[in-house]
Amino acid sequence: MKHNRQEDDFREEIASHIEMRAELNRERGLPADEALRAARRQFGNTSIVAEGMRQVHVSEFFEGLLQDLRYALRGFARQPMFAVTAVFAAALGIGSTTAVFSVVDRILFRSLPYREDNRLVSLGMMAPLDTNEFLFAESYFDWRKHQTPFESVTSFAAAIGDCDLTESNPLRLSCADVEANFLPTLGISPILGRNFTKEEDVRNGPRVVLISYGLWQSRFGRDPNVIGRRVSIDGGPVTILGVLPANFEMPTLAHPDVLTPERLDEARERNGRLLRVFARLKPGVTLAQAQQAMQPIWQRTLLSVPAPFRKEVHLSLRSLRDRQIHDARTASWVLLGAVCSVLLIACANIANLLLARATSRRKEMAVRAALGAGRGRLIRQTLTETVLLGVAGGAVGCGLAWLLLRTFIGIAPQGIPRLDQAALDLRVLLFALMASVIAGALFGIGPALVKPEAESLTGTRSAGAQRALLRECLVAAQIAVSLVLLASAGLLLRSLWKIESVPLGMETEHVITADFVLGSQGYRQDTRQLQFYDDLEARLAAIPGVTSFSISDSLPPAGITRARPLVAIQVEGLPPLTEGTGGMITWRYVTPGYFTTLGIPIVRGRGFNEEDRTPAASAMILSQTFAHRAFPNGDAIGKRIKADGWATVVGVVADVKNNGPTMAADPEYYVLRKRVVDEIFRNQMPPYGWRQAKVAIRTSVNAKVMTDWLKREFAALDPSLPVTFGSMQQRVGKLMDRPRFHAVLLSIFAGMGVLLAAIGLYGVMAFLVGQRTQEIGVRMALGATPGGIVKLVLRRASVWTLTGALVGLTGTIFATRLIRTLLFDVPALDPWTLAVVVPGLLVIALAAAWIPSLRAAHVDPMNALRHE
Amino acid sequence: MVDRSSLQGALALLILKTLARGPNHGFGIALHIQNASEGLLSVEEGSLYPALHRLERDKLVSAEWKVTANGRRARYYRLTAAGTKRLREAEASWDATAQGVMRVLRFA
């Protein structure tokens, strides 16, 4: 606006000049048109003149800025250590904050890829057999019909299973069965074609599918004519109706290749199909209100739950984000808190450096003020310098952030939601920019406002005392925040160490594992599956160097296992439970070599043998805890238990940590894989049934060699079967990934914090020593010893270090409470951790003060005094 | 000594001196300098206006839009207190410079 008015002014002033000249020309007798032309000619090029006027006004601002910049750069060049330290501190602070922000942004803040995602909720029944809410199809119809708080409710089959694209070039895909209103409820529409309709989503409806963007790209070369094409999935022809957007993901974070109609049929749904239910809240309805409104319906649902379970299930309503991030929330906030602390320390550090600089430049500033530099001009000069430092730190910090982010992703455990999407994009860079500018302003404004006083010109130092206090407070604050960081990192490290030393109840060394799922097409018949496993056993037994092996449906120490409530198990001679479920009992379907291979000791009785596998036999082995629970007063051996069918207990084995090292183990029993179809084999659980299996091999042969042999054997059995090889130690190690990730990250930040705090303390002490050189000279001239001078300096440093440590200890009490949920078997106020961290920090702090104190001790009294 | 800035300084001096007689617009200033120097000095518009705006920026003159006797809108410049002071200083230093230059020219 202002700019435009100015331009108009320029133009009008020129026009007015030319017209006046033309008038004069007319008065001198020239004809009107010739008068104007002569006036124009004499004026010359009007736009050059206008440009000349513009220049005058523009340069006023830029010349000042350029001068400030030149001046700042010259100043930095004169004191390179100052500039390098400041930029280094700013880069550490900004870089680590930016890297962590780019990770937690995806988890905590960024909107999900759905329309108005804050209105989306996950709802259902929360029960011990799953960590997420679900609903049986029978109840779902009631919920859908009678709910009031939601705009719409939708569902999909909980089991997202594999399906095969059975064409000339077969492909294993993952398929999800979703309701017709699934995409509209989330607010997603296909980028090509259409969604299937309610009329198509019925029993025996047309076979139609939506395909993912990825599949469209990789399989159909982004052919726009793919709509309406018929392809063959699991042996049947289906028609492609539409293509999903590239960023599509299920609310459960799954990425299925194909969406098919769920085909719920209210009249027939009686077999307990498990559904995931999501809904969109009506505008203005809160979660609590919705929870309240669902209560009557929930009471009805509860009636359909078998009596023993009722106490252990509850209605669950969560925002979609809460469901997705689970326990990542605490960790994310802790990390964000940690880096913000680092940023804080960095800012305090730079503020300190600038204060020191401001003190040493008071004379210069006072001279400039005396020579007529305005107060605004001096503030601007200081702010230019700090913002320049901030921006330089931001630039270096961006590079550091990129490096750190690569490291995070490299060491991150699986299951941190959306980590793969974390990147330094525009939003994150904006954050970094804001962080650096705010940091610049924060640590710049203080020194900038220091008023240059004429007194400074006299060379006395009395005015500096107050500022020294401020600087020492800043150092104390840095020490305090560092202590909190160090204590938190120490707790996480100790907790990691504890987790790693938890006995798992088995020997994990020298065990190779192989995971696979047999294709649903080729192994649809039971006989084909049994035949495959028979052949596999024969081949494994024939490999030289295999000490023992086992095939089982699952492997400890974690992962999905089969489980059933105690109430569903009948123990001979024991009355059935009358109240509650009795908790979940884990069970596994194994071959005889299982205990030998995993090194699980047999406590009583015997392990499985080949005779137990004859069709008529029925043997079962219990874990110690389960044996004790089922037969509290007697020997379990020889007793009978009915789970899938009656079986006789032949042995008791030691407990194995089957819920991971940090969780209490569940009681467990083992049943034997036979070579024929029996009751257990009939109990196939979706989505994979017994097609999913895990092989464990104990071997003394080099793992790589053995893996190659195994690969060959699998290829000979079924060349198209994808198999994942690993080792038992890797599987166990994966469980430590998350605590290790937290511990490593926090340690890095604590290290940065301590480093910065040490630099800060060093800077302050070095500065104080520099300022008091003359005083020290006098003291030495009067007979002070070098040792006495060192003590003098260290005493001053330790006062502030101890103050900081005390404040830090108080802060630690509060901060460690926040990370309690991340700890394992370590109290939030662990005396051992504090006993290492506090003295450690004090030693580092005193070491930082030691160097300047030595310099002080070497002051030459003659030189120092001559200085005056 | 005779560099761009001192020439600019000379122009600024002429402008300030002209304005000392009373507020005037750019054309009027150019005309007065030409007439007063009996045609010896002619001010180019290309340097006059930037010079005027520089003086305005430095708060030695102030400007406002007014209507001339002939009913035309024109930007009138007026000497400020700082401008008056600067004019006095500049006149003195110009006298010295001019005398110096004259002596050297005569000597040579």
- What portion of residues of chain B is helical? 55-70%
Ends of chain A: how far apart?
A: 57 Å
Largest interface: chains, residues each? A-B, 23 and 21 residues
Could you tell me the mean pLDDT of chain A?
A: 83
- In terms of quaternary structure, the protein is heterodimer
The end-to-end span of chain B amounts to 17 Å
Number of strands of chain A: 24
Note the total helix count of chain A: 24
Largest sheet of chain B: 3 strands, antiparallel
What would CATH call the architecture of chain B? Orthogonal Bundle
Give the CA-based shape of chain A.
globular
Gyration radius of chain B, rounded = 15 Å
Structural class estimated from helices and strands of chain A: alpha+beta
Uncertain runs of chain A: 459-463
CATH homologous superfamily assignment of chain B: Winged helix-like DNA-binding domain superfamily/Winged helix DNA-binding domain
Uncertain stretches of chain B:
none
Give the averaged pLDDT of chain B, no decimals.
83
Number of domains of chain B: 1
User: What's the CATH class label of chain B?
Assistant: Mainly Alpha
Strand order of the largest sheet of chain B: 1-3-2
Stated plainly, the CATH topology of chain B is called Arc Repressor Mutant, subunit A
Descriptive report:
The complex is a heterodimer of chains A (868) and B (108). Chain A has 868 residues and is an alpha+beta fold. Chain A has five domains: 2-63, no CATH class; 79-110 and 327-332 and 339-460, no CATH class; 129-312, no CATH class; 465-504 and 734-868, no CATH class; 519-720, no CATH class. Chain A is built from 24 helices and 24 strands. In chain A, helix 4 packs across helix 12, helix 14 runs antiparallel to helix 23 (831-857) and helix 21 (773-781) packs across helix 24. Chain B is α+β, with helices and mostly antiparallel strands and 108 residues long. Chain B has a single domain, classed as Arc Repressor Mutant, subunit A (Orthogonal Bundle), CATH 1.10.10. Chain B is globular. The model of chain B has no long low-confidence stretch (mean pLDDT 83). Classes of the chains: A alpha+beta (868), B alpha+beta (108). Chain A binds chain B through residues 9, 12-14, 16-17, 19-21, 23-24, 42-45, 48-49, 52-53, 55-57, 60, and chain B through 25-28, 30-31, 44-47, 49-50, 53-54, 57, 68, 70, 72-75.
